[in-house]
Fold:
Amino acid sequence: MFQFCPPQAQFLTERISQNDLQWKSISQHSLIDIFYKAGKMPSVQQLKYLVALADSLSFSRAAAMTYVSQPTLSMQIKDLERRLNVVLFERSRSRVALTPLGEEIARKARGILAEVADIHALARTQGRGMGGTLRVGVVHTVGAYLLPLVVPALSATFPDMRFYIREELPNVLLTHLDAARHDIVLSPMPIVRTDLQTIPLYEEPLMVVMPRNHPLSSHEAIERKDLKGETILTMEPGHRLAEQVSELCEEVGASLSYDYEGTSLDTIRQMVAMGMGISIMPALYVRSEVRREQLVIARPFRGGAPSRLIGLSYRAGNPRVATIRKVADAMRSALHQDIEEVSVP
Structure:
């Protein structure tokens, strides 16, 4: 069923003392030391409130994220600070900001919550084989064009598994993967993180998308040099695709449009149809949306086309590694058998 919707580290903290706050360097396990010195261990739920407020920097949004009232969340954050005898957040009428110590404790809290989620996942899957729920995070430029191609294979291979799928920006995906809100993430590679494992899924070429009346539309394939002087539309910063297109523009002498940066590939396609420029788009998006479009047309690059590699990432300590690898294998098999636009490594 599908539903869309640390290594060893050194950091600074405050010595727990009512009269003498000092900075010192502490090790990986010192967050627990802080809790014990403070006299009371915080609850897991309080750590969830802490992380939600650290992520949103808004009491109202954090309360909504954790399904409690704003006064309840505020009271629990104050109680956590009292238990630890430290200030985690700076508060004013106009803003909420993490203190340096608050940033470090929130980072450690994310790791603790991930470990707790892994314990629950291990318990849920004990004796259940390939059942349970797998929480999937996927970047906007991948999800809607990949998932329809692999969902039938996943449903057939894992009839007892429920997939919860959520689209987010790349940096948000990794933050939520760290916090165990996602079990796996589907996104462009590379992801250089020693605490994450990645499995390459497929490589897809990028294609030139332009209005049907554009001079280059008469070409069967586009040389890179043909893009010189063209205005190129692409995604807003934060997407790996935007970085690739920017690098290509610099290479060929094209102009990257800063007047409009898209939040979705669909919006960019509409801007291309209006004659605001041309774009560079992934092959699976072209297959899904451009080929049936009347106002725009796609052309491949001649010779070595730029491409992007899409992979599956998961936390190295995830207890469901065997299940995750079988999910990746099912995706790769479906793409290899049926989708000629991509290559499966």
